[in-house]
Design brief:
With 202 residues, this protein is mainly beta. Helices cover 14% and strands 37% of the residues. The chain contains 2 helices and 15 strands. The strands form 4 sheets. A 4-stranded antiparallel beta sheet has the order 1-2-3-4, with no helix packed on it. The protein has a 4-stranded antiparallel beta sheet with strand order 5-6-7-8, with no helix packed on it. A hairpin with a 5-residue loop joins strand 1 and strand 2.
Length: 202
């Protein structure tokens, strides 16, 4: 209880100091919402691409923001050139500038210049995996992305081809919800632990 009270006091102090800093620096906050074109009010992810555009994932659609207007991406019935699902769980921009979109029902890649949406099929490597949640995405040094689902982690290259990571299922009995990397390793949270997977050894 004492620790809880201390944490609350620290949070209040930091919030007060931040408010003073904003006032001193003349910072101004602007709010954008559904009334301004945002697809839905519950924001799940935000990233900035290499051209400076802001991508906002929500529980009902993906938004590309240029500072003035929102372009909305959504799933369209019987249209494979649209998002696989509207609930956005993860976003990342890779080294080539592509925006990767993880949803509650599959993985997508968007070319921000042409606005082309490509659904990445996982069926050849993982039968039935197109229906899995994409919990986390991590850009790979060589291009492409590492993808964490509820059952394993895999790699998708710049051509959209999917590859298993050797021995990864042994380490992920219940999937992974978070994924980051450094030069030589992947780090991920799974089974109430943090795991390190050496990329150089595999």
């Amino acid at each position: 209880a004492v620790n809880h009270v201390i944490k609350i006091k620290i949070l209040v102090i930091l919030s007060f100091q931040f408010g003073l800093l904003c006032a001193q620096k003349g910072l101004r906050f602007v709010r954008w919402g559904v009334e301004d074109g945002l697809s839905q009010s519950t924001v799940t992810q935000i990233i900035q691409d290499k051209s400076g555009f802001i991508w906002v994932g929500t529980q009902d659609g993906l938004n590309k923001f240029d500072g003035y207007e929102f372009k909305v991406y959504r799933q369209k019935e019987n249209d494979p050139a649209s998002l696989s699902n509207n609930y956005i769980m993860s976003l990342i921009c890779d080294s080539a500038g592509y925006v990767w979109v993880g949803t509650t029902n599959g993985l997508n890649r968007i070319n921000p210049l042409t606005h082309k949406v490509e659904r990445i099929s996982l069926e050849k490597i993982f039968p039935g995996a197109n229906n899995y949640r994409i919990h986390s995405l991590c850009a790979a040094a060589q291009g492409g992305v590492y993808v964490a689902t509820g059952f394993t982690i895999f790699y998708v290259d710049t051509k959209g081809d999917v590859y298993r990571l050797p021995n990864i299922e042994v380490m992920l009995p219940s999937g992974s919800n978070s994924l980051v990397r450094d030069a030589d390793n992947l780090y991920f949270a799974a089974s109430k632990k943090i795991w390190c997977y050496s990329l150089s050894l595999h």
